[in-house]
C-alpha cells in the first residue's frame, strides 16, 4: 500500500515533476515476517526512519509530495503514519491495491515482480514461490481499508484487481483528485508506443522554427519508408495520432491508415520568433536568445510558449496514451521531447535537450519499473535540427522568469 504525504505549504519552486509538484519516493525495504519470528519492532523502526526522511524532504528540501512505499497493511501501521502526519501538519492519501483474482495475481507476479529490485536473480519459479509465501504471511495481519466504519474519514483510493473496479473515499484537494484521475487511466496490459517526428519539412531545410510548411522531397520519402516499416511490423489495432499541422498530416496520409488529429500535439508556439532561423533570432532578439539558452525549460517565447507550458498542454495526450494499446504519435521535436521525458522519467533540465532526430522512430514498451526503448533509424537522410545545451555562460544576468506560472496538472 502506497501512502502519499502532501505538504500544505507549497513553495515557489521551479523543480516540477509531472504532478506539477516536487516529489520523492521513500521505500521501506521490508522482509516479510514469518509467524515464528518477531520482526514487528524491526519493521516499525525502519518505517520510522523512512518517515523522518519524509519529514526532512517536505520541510527542509522544498518538497511537496512524498510517496511512502511500504506494506502498510495493518491498522497500527496506518495509525502511526496518520499520527506522524498530524504532528507535522501533512495531508495523507492512501492508495490500496486489492487483488483476489488468482489469475491476475499470477500474471502480476510474472510481469511485475520478476523485474522488481527485490529479486535480482530473476528466476521466475523462485519468484513465484517466494511471493506467494509473502502473500500468505501478509494475510495473517492484513486489514483492508474500511470505508464504512474504521477508515471512513480517511482519504484514499482502493484499486481492485488492477483496475477492474475502484473505490474512492473523501478526496480533499486538487492533487488528490489528480492522483485518482491518473490511477483510473493507467493499465498494465502489454502495448507499444511509437513516437516519431514528421518527415523533413521545407522549413527544416531552411533552418526555420515553427510555421506550417509542407514536407520536403526527403520528408515524403520518409513517409513512404514509415509506411513500409509499419506494414512489416504488423502491429495489431494500431492507432495513429498527428498534430493539426501540415507536415504531420502529410506524413500520416502516406500511411494508408485512419489517423486522428490532435491540436494539442502542435509544435511549441514560438510567438514572435515563428518562422525565423536561430541566427535571425539571435540577431533580432539577442537578449531573448540568451535567456532561452540559460533557462530553456522555463523560458517562454514572447507571445508564445515555454516547455513548461507545453508539458501542461500535453496532459490529455499523456492520459490517453496511458489508457490505450498500440499507438503511433507523429509529432514535433519539442512535443516528442515532452512525451519521451514522461515515459523515460527525465527531469526539466534534460527534457529540452533530448535528441529527437528526424526520420527516426522511438519504440517504447512499458515494463515493470521502467520503459524499454528502441531507436529505429529509417534509411532516409534529413537535416539535423538539434541544438546542444550551451557549455559556457553567456554572461547575461537573467532578470525575469519568462514562464512564471506554475505547472498545475499531471502530464
Automatic annotation (TrEMBL):
GO terms for cellular component: cytosol. PROSITE patterns: PG_MUTASE. SUPFAM superfamilies: P-loop containing nucleoside triphosphate hydrolases, Phosphoglycerate mutase-like. Its EC number is 2.7.1.105, 3.1.3.46. GO terms for biological process: fructose 2,6-bisphosphate metabolic process; fructose metabolic process. Substrate binds at residues 197-204, 247. It comes from the Eukaryota. Residues 391-411 are annotated as: Disordered. Residues 43-190 form the 6-phosphofructo-2-kinase domain. Keywords: Acetylation, ATP-binding, Hydrolase, Kinase, Multifunctional enzyme, Nucleotide-binding, Phosphoprotein, Transferase. Gene3D superfamilies: P-loop containing nucleotide triphosphate hydrolases, Phosphoglycerate mutase-like. One of its GO terms (molecular function) is fructose-2,6-bisphosphate 2-phosphatase activity. PANTHER family: 6-PHOSPHOFRUCTO-2-KINASE/FRUCTOSE-2,6-BISPHOSPHATASE, 6-PHOSPHOFRUCTO-2-KINASE_FRUCTOSE-2,6-BISPHOSPHATASE 2. Homodimer. Forms a heterodimer with PFKFB3. In the C-terminal section; belongs to the phosphoglycerate mutase family. Synthesis and degradation of fructose 2,6-bisphosphate. This is 6-phosphofructo-2-kinase/fructose-2,6-bisphosphatase 2. It comes from Callorhinus ursinus.
Amino acid at each position: 500500500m502506497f501512502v502519499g504525504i502532501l505538504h500544505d505549504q507549497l513553495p515557489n519552486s521551479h523543480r516540477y515533476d509531472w504532478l506539477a509538484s516536487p516529489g520523492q519516493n521513500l521505500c521501506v525495504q521490508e522482509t516479510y515476517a514469518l509467524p515464528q519470528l518477531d520482526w514487528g519492532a524491526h519493521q516499525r523502526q525502519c518505517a520510522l526512519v523512512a518517515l523522518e526522511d519524509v519529514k526532512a524532504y517536505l520541510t527542509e528540501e522544498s518538497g511537496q509530495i512524498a510517496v511512502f512505499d511500504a506494506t502498510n497493511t495493518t491498522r497500527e501501521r496506518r495509525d502511526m503514519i496518520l499520527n506522524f502526519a498530524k504532528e507535522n501538519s501533512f495531508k495523507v492519501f492512501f492508495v490500496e491495491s486489492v487483488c483476489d483474482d488468482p489469475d491476475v495475481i499470477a500474471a502480476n507476479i510474472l510481469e511485475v515482480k520478476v523485474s522488481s529490485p527485490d529479486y535480482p536473480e530473476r528466476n521466475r519459479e523462485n519468484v513465484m514461490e517466494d511471493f506467494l509465501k509473502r502473500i500468505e504471511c501478509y494475510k495473517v495481519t492484513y486489514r483492508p481499508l474500511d470505508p464504512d466504519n474504521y477508515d471512513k474519514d480517511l482519504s484514499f483510493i482502493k484499486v481492485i484487481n488492477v483496475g477492474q473496479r475502484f473505490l474512492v473515499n473523501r478526496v480533499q484537494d486538487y492533487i488528490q483528485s489528480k492522483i485518482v484521475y491518473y490511477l483510473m487511466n493507467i493499465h498494465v496490459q502489454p502495448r507499444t508506443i511509437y513516437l516519431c517526428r514528421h518527415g523533413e519539412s521545407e522549413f527544416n531545410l531552411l533552418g526555420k522554427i515553427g510555421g506550417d510548411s509542407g514536407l520536403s522531397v526527403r520528408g515524403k520519402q520518409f513517409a513512404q519508408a514509415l509506411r513500409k516499416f509499419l506494414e512489416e511490423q504488423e502491429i495489431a489495432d494500431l492507432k495513429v495520432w498527428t498534430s493539426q499541422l501540415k507536415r504531420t498530416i502529410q506524413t500520416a496520409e502516406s500511411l494508408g491508415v485512419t489517423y486522428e488529429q490532435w491540436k494539442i500535439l502542435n509544435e511549441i508556439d514560438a510567438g514572435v520568433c515563428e518562422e525565423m532561423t536561430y541566427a535571425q533570432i539571435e540577431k533580432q532578439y539577442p537578449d531573448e536568445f540568451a535567456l532561452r539558452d540559460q533557462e530553456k525549460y522555463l523560458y517562454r517565447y514572447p507571445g508564445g510558449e515555454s516547455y513548461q507550458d507545453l508539458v501542461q498542454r500535453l496532459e490529455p495526450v499523456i492520459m490517453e496514451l496511458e489508457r490505450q494499446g498500440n499507438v503511433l504519435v507523429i509529432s514535433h521535436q519539442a512535443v516528442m521531447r515532452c512525451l519521451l521525458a514522461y515515459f523515460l522519467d527525465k527531469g526539466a533540465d534534460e527534457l529540452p535537450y533530448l535528441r529527437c532526430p528526424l526520420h527516426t522512430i522511438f519504440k517504447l514498451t512499458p515494463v515493470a519499473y521502467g520503459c524499454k526503448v528502441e531507436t529505429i533509424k529509417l534509411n532516409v537522410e534529413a537535416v539535423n535540427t538539434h541544438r546542444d545545451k550551451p557549455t559556457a555562460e553567456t554572461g547575461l544576468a537573467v532578470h525575469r522568469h519568462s514562464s512564471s506560472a506554475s505547472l498545475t496538472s499531471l502530464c
